[in-house]
# Entry
Amino acid sequence: MADYETPELSSDDGLVDVPALVPDTMVGKGPYISKPEFQEGMNFPSDIEQDEDGNWSLIPNWKEEALNKLDDLRGRYRSLQVYLDICVKCGACTDKCHYYIGTSDPKNMPVARQDLLRKVYRRYFTFAGKYFPKLVGAVDLTEEVVDDWYNYYHQCSQCRRCSVFCPYGIDTAEVSMAAREILNHIGRGQKYCTEIMGKVYKIGNNLGLPQAALADTLEGLEEDIEDETGVPVKLPLDQHGADILLITPSADFFAEPHVDGLMGYAKVFHELGLSWTLSSYASEGANFGMFIGSYENMRKISMRIRKAAQDLGVKRIVFGECGHAWRVAYSFLNTLAGPFDFLDQRYPVPQHVLEITWPALRDGKLNIDKSRNDDMTLTFHDSCNVARGSRMGEEEGGQFDVPRNVIKAVCNNYVDMPADTTKDATFCCGGGGGILTDDLMDIRVKGAQPRMQALKHVTDNHGVTHMAAICAICKSQFTKVIPYYGFTMDQIVSVHQLVSSALILTGQVDEDEDGE
Amino acid sequence: MALEINGTTYEQDEEGYLVDLGSWNADVATALAAEEDVELTDEHWDIINFLREYYEEYQIAPAVRVLTKAVGKRLGKEKGNSKYLYSLFPYGPGKQACKYAGLPKPTGCV
# Structure
């Protein structure tokens, strides 16, 4: 592990005390800048140059373009215009951000981070700011301001916890997205996101996993399930005429514990007799277009799902465990890539895999032996984009209850973390919104502190051994950062991994009973 | 960023990954590991060689499970797990081992 200053945890009440301000602790250059080749792939301006020290310039007419883009965005999104105007600086959001709590940097207070953009908006687009800038805290747009934007808007994971506490309902994520979209258009895109989206366009997923490698990986998983259970469970790829198209984050093919979740979906589909397939063309649930505030790119990625569904002739689209994939799917897919009138309207369009698994468990359609998870005491981390950006199931609050119901249906031991850290008050894992990159490791470690404190509380006081999640980013972020806090990476599990362990397939012969 | 070995320059990206995959050789792997204070043993080389073979066939690094399974088959079941791989490559087998093997870094939510 590389050295980062890791905050100390206590297990008293699971909550972190609000830190005293320490200005400029997180001042810096921000993440790696998107090179011209990646910018071109996104249809963003790419006429930037690198000097001898490796620093990138902005595009030649950057100031004019930045203001044009801000004007364009406030015209496109009425919400953004409102958020720029209505903040009264009440301070309710100041101590709600995991990055502020973890870093003590006042610019990570949501109101202050938003104001980095707002103060420029005021200078150029409001009467008071144009004529009396000092009176209203309006400032000129300079390269220093752009540097601050780039640095601090990449210390926001767009998790929207602050918005829950804002009396006006100002959505900080939208302000962050707008700021990043302006940066995209002046030559300051973020390498992590643009490189990845380029791979989606070329290959079909964030990883750059080509069809042959995906097929080989899935075949290997089929072997593993059959070795373990004696049942030939299939993970079909590009199967024309299947009923369900499963869209899942490509991390499910690649990383741990994600892949255990994928095997869980496959076992549930198998046991319920559902006909399903993955698509190599749309082998990605994640949609990084949202992170960088680019409607055009978010739409382009979503259209791949529509095309795959049509090409394969499926009747339903189901999403796997991926937080912001589900936000984009649940909240935007129908308007981004719809109408989905060619799908079977008797099912939700789109549907979450948990909306299949929970009713099946509830109605006793799956043979479950909960004792198989008795070596664990679980807690559940609500992923921000699911908790605050979507819903699940038929009841209000289903996005909180459905995953918990599933865990409780397959595990005997379950404990919730403190109420101020769960459900709609959940803390981000610290890696969402385009922050899950090694060049932002410092902020990732610090931003995880509130969640780690809550986990420490239930670990020390209630014997919790494992934390389950339903988002690829949360799973990757936690496995990477929890060792800094004294936990081990295998304490993070997928929800469908728990289902998989407890589920006894029809005809299952366990490895040990088989005499192996 | 660049690596200088016996008069030859090897270009690296911001994170130290080799830019031209074709220019890789064993000395490059040793030098990349040395930058992170890792001395490559036979155990490291088993993994690096497998990664390169897999990449040759599939143009991508293997998934963690594919890797652990292959290691288990080749080197014995007790080594076919992530714990063993992390003991060799503490920054993560996917990323650190790929770097030494001259492969691009796996990207995405991993």
In short: The mean pLDDT of chain B is 92. The beta strands of chain B are 2-5, 8-11. Helices of chain B lie at 26-35, 42-58, 64-75, 82-88, 93-100. The first strand of chain B starts at residue 2 and ends at 5.
